[in-house]
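Quick sanity check, ADP-ribose pyrophosphatase:
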Amino acid sequence: MPTPEFVLELRKKIGHDLLWLNGVTGCVLNDQGQLLLGRRSDTGEWAMVYGINEPGEQPADTVVREIKEETGVDAIVTDLVAVTSSDRVITYANGDNTMYMDHSFLCKVKPGGNAKPFVGDEESLNVGWFDVDDLPQPLAESTVERLQLFQKYITNKQHGDAHAFFRFDGKQY
């Protein structure tokens, strides 16, 4: 669903004023190392799976739910890679202003689960697995930025130093 019901209810009270939301990003890799992407219906850009936490929902549960809803793929979270705050206000076409605290999760296909992507809702025009060295264009700016975080994290983890790049609020620790 494009805009969660709780956000619509809040917007009735605050109009287009700035709204701070918790979001998630799922970097889903299959056994071949391919990346799951969806072509967004609102921008036409290819992107990793994004979503907004429902009240009371754990961020890891949100990302698994969003991956299933948008792509049909059954995923599990393997790593929390970054918790970052956006430094810019996003103004949507309808005038709504929003900023996000994003939880970026590395995910894989759930063993025994569905790995064949399909367009699961109206948020996507197309979905599929892509080689990381040959990603479709245009890529959403937020996907380009977050993909760099994931690639750095994966490289560090392969060298036994996964926590060297764990991020909170945009700072490396």
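Posting the structure with no commentary besides this: The chain has a mean pLDDT of 91.
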